[in-house]
Amino acid sequence: MPNLAQIAIAARAHAHAPYSNFRVGAALETSTGEIYTGCNVENSTYGLTICAERVAVVKAISEGARPGSFVRIAIAADTPTLTPPCGACRQILAEFAPGAVITLVNLAGLSKSYTIADLLPESFNDSFLR
Ligand code: THU
After folding, report:
1. Is residue 1 very low, low, confident or very high in pLDDT (cuts 50, 70, 90)?
2. What spacing in Å lies between the alpha carbon of 40 and ligand 1's midpoint?
3. pLDDT, tens digit, for every residue of 50-62?
């Protein structure tokens, strides 16, 4: 069975990236072992582009996965160094996958893992809304 990094790499194949030609894949795993994949989906207006990580989160939630149930996410891109998630994706991961280990991988087998606190310290969250 492929590991989460391999699943994220495979998800790149579906990327719709005609503008940047930069293909990203993500694989998100829940505490009960379900895996949801995502790829970046670009748009000719550029600003409506959706990153691979957010596609995976939105797919998972829309299929019934519970916010907070995610334990791991792998994010794959073809760069010599690892590709970090953008600020918007960090905010989404902080809200939906606060406990997940976030592993960045490339095609050469390089990987590095982070917590969301590493990537987005002092983040805004719903506690400020109360
Ligand atoms: N992208 C992602 O999908 N995830 C990241 O972590 C970084 C950037 C996408 C957005 C866009 O389609 C392309 O990569 C170039 O920015």
Report:
1. confident
2. 6
3. 999 999 999 999 9
